Amino acid sequence: MGDSKKKFAIAGLASILLVAMVVAVAVGVTRKNSADGASVGTSSKAVQAICSPTDYKDACEKSLANANSTDPKTLIETAFNSTIDDIVSAVKSSALLKEAAKDDSTKAAFDVCDEVLGTAVDDLKRSISRVSELDGSKVNEYVEDLKTWLSAVTTYQETCIDAFENTTGDSGEKMKDLLKTARQLSSNALAMVNDITSLISSLNLNSLNGGGAASRKMLWHNDPTDYEPGTEPGTWPSRHLLSVRPNAVVAKDGSGQFKTISAAVAMVPKKNAVPFLIYVKAGVYKEHVEIPKGAHKIVMYGDGPLRTIISGSKNYAQGTKTFQSATLAVNADDFLARDLAVENTAGPEGHQAVALRVSGDRAVFFNCHLNGFQDTLYAHTYRQFYRNCVISGTIDFVFGDALSIFQNCRFVVRRPMDSQACMVTAQGRVDPRSQGAIVIQGGDIVADPALFKAPKPIQVYLGRPWKELSRTIIMQVNIGGFIAPEGWSPWMGNFALDTLYYAEYQNSGPGSNQAHRVHWKGIKHINPKTAQSFTPGRAFGGDYWIAGARIPYVPSML
């Protein structure tokens, strides 16, 4: 088939997929209604079809009751808009609750809600745009975006509720009630998009996409010179940083344009669309840096992780919410950091104290050191890739609900307080269709020498389930012998032990022996095909944004 004919053939693919999804289910609905002697209008049948894959069908059908349309795109967009309306309503109602709050911790929780729920609304709006733009030639890429952003919508609402932990009064329960319908509709939206994905897989439509991410991947690996920055959204000119003039230079000694990183970040244009390079010269920068929403495509690089260090000490023990404690908080898309360190020096007595929080899509970290104790890295939302990084901490020091993949990274377990145990991961997936997972591929898990100097042996585990559907995969990793034979730790009692998803595959080292691992229902023994599905080239759906970063990268098994 010629290129022009092929483009014509796939031009309407997205609409065909959506219609096929509705028709396939509508036929079943019609037959069932006929058997029952019922008469259902065409619009009602379409609504039932769209709502068929959802878990909260009553809420779904109610949200579409006034749609008066059989067009699948219109129905999906209406469902997304209904979710926006419910979240906005919850935010408005929460403002009254905030005014009535008497303690600072509760007020801070409402501040967290304002921020994350606002971002959830933004994600729903860009999801609506994606649905309206859905094009056959990019259907896989667009659907992956939708799944990622809608997964984040569910996570942001959970983050809001989490912020009320250990607050006084009933504000947390009231906020949970305000978000009840919005959380159901968010889950429904994710289910609708997931159904499109299933249809794509069943029809084997990847060939119609011209290879999609796979073709881009081969272009990068076969001939890197053909893969230039700007050829795909989210690419960065990072291969020749030393020969490229940065947009901003930060230096403590005054030899640059700025003395603080925050001042340089403030110069990034709003809704930035081209790479903005920030070179941070050697030094310890004691500041809390926030990359705001809209400051996209920042490339931040230093003189090496032992020389360029961003340092902070905000922590929960001193009254700062975990979400707000990050030394570096990334809220924009397409952020690349390399050759620098981020630390939180609060120590184990500070309890939750985040060094890095990433709440931006398609984030890449290369040759970075992330140092802290409890909650060092908050891999919060969206898609994140870490390569050749060192991450140190004590309790839950890699946590969150992003789809985060760590390739050839080192995890260093530090000494906690003497009464504590250590867990490397605490993944927080809350929806069965969410993209969220922590995948550790290659690299090693080692102990800081101080860990062995505690008066009593410290128990160390690979992870524990922060949320009910926690998902963590550890594969091809060299695991130190200090890891407890059980491997995994419960969160509290039997919580999530049946619903979590934990897997170990092709690991090595004295701590990799699974003979005495826990026997929870959620522990999985995966085969090569399943393991392959968690590699970056497969799990992310499209890996152009990693290849574009021009860092060492293996899309499949190591």
UniProtKB/TrEMBL annotation:
Q: What is its EC number?
A: 3.1.1.11
- Active site residues of this protein: 396
Reading the lineage from the top rank, the first entry is Eukaryota
Pathway field of the UniProt record reads:
Glycan metabolism; pectin degradation; 2-dehydro-3-deoxy-D-gluconate from pectin: step 1/5
Task: Tell me the SMART domains matching this sequence.
Answer: PMEI (SM00856)
Residues annotated as domain Pectinesterase inhibitor: 42-192
InterPro entries, sorted:
Invertase/methylesterase_inhib (IPR035513), Pectin_lyas_fold (IPR012334), Pectin_lyase_fold/virulence (IPR011050), Pectinesterase_Asp_AS (IPR033131), Pectinesterase_cat (IPR000070), Pectinesterase_inhib_dom (IPR006501), Pectinesterase_Tyr_AS (IPR018040)
An example of a Gene Ontology BP annotation on this entry?
pectin catabolic process
Q: Where this protein primarily resides, as one coarse class?
A: secreted
Recall the GO molecular function terms of this protein's record: enzyme inhibitor activity; pectinesterase activity
Q: Where in the cell is it found?
A: Secreted, Cell wall
One Pfam assignment: PMEI
Per the record, what are the reactions this protein catalyses? [(1->4)-alpha-D-galacturonosyl methyl ester](n) + n H2O = [(1->4)-alpha-D-galacturonosyl](n) + n methanol + n H(+)
- UniProt KW keywords: Aspartyl esterase, Cell wall, Cell wall biogenesis/degradation, Disulfide bond, Glycoprotein, Hydrolase, Secreted
Family to which this protein belongs:
In the N-terminal section; belongs to the PMEI family.
Instruction: Describe the task this protein carries out.
Output: Acts in the modification of cell walls via demethylesterification of cell wall pectin.
Q: What is this protein called?
A: Pectinesterase
This chain's source organism reads: Striga hermonthica (Purple witchweed)
